[in-house]
């Protein structure tokens, strides 16, 4: 299985001004934007950390997921949530020949934690031996930063500030603060059925 992010989080979508306020950085100076690149880097790192811990895309973007077998022949849980649309399903054989599957043969079953690609018939399309299924989809909690839930947006700012304040420390040595873990707790999927989620 391989998940590829097709559209990264645009820099313009990041709450740099809000993050400056959170850090209580001075304003009104000629060099106000001198740290913007650093602040963007820490916001991106915080978003990546929270997305990895929750399995949620915060800002809406496109993904392509390639897999070699269905976990369940009638439905497949998607690796990122919440999914807003499945834009394409393609079956590729071992020689590279592609077949685009008719969208009438599957639907998206939305869910905050485990959205699924579900067959409208008995089974999903057969993946040939040595072949793959390629699922293109859009996922995200909000199309803009303003649409991201307030608690998880606050967790991003808190974690980015923690990284900023501990910037002299190696990345693996900086732990996620308890306040951040508390804010993102309700977004973490409950692990049931021995890993049957994917």
What can you see in these coordinates?
The strands form 2 sheets. This protein has a 5-stranded antiparallel beta sheet, with no helix packed on it. With 198 residues, the chain is of the alpha+beta class. A hairpin with a 5-residue loop joins strand 4 and strand 5. It is 25% helix and 22% strand. It is built from 4 helices and 8 strands. The mean pLDDT is 89. The longest helix is centred in the first third of the chain and has 19 residues. The chain folds into 2 domains: 83 residues, Hypothetical protein yqbg (Orthogonal Bundle), CATH 1.10.3230; 79 residues, no CATH class.
Task: Write out key terms for the chains shown.
single chain; 198 residues; alpha+beta; Hypothetical protein yqbg; five-stranded antiparallel β-sheet; 4 helices; 8 strands
Entry summary:
The protein has 198 residues and is of the alpha+beta class. It has four helices and eight strands; from the N terminus they run βααβββββββαα.
Helical percent range?
A: 25-40%
Anisotropy-based shape: elongated
Task: Return the structural class.
Answer: alpha+beta
Q: Strand order within the widest sheet?
A: 1-2-8-4-5
CATH class of the largest domain: Mainly Alpha
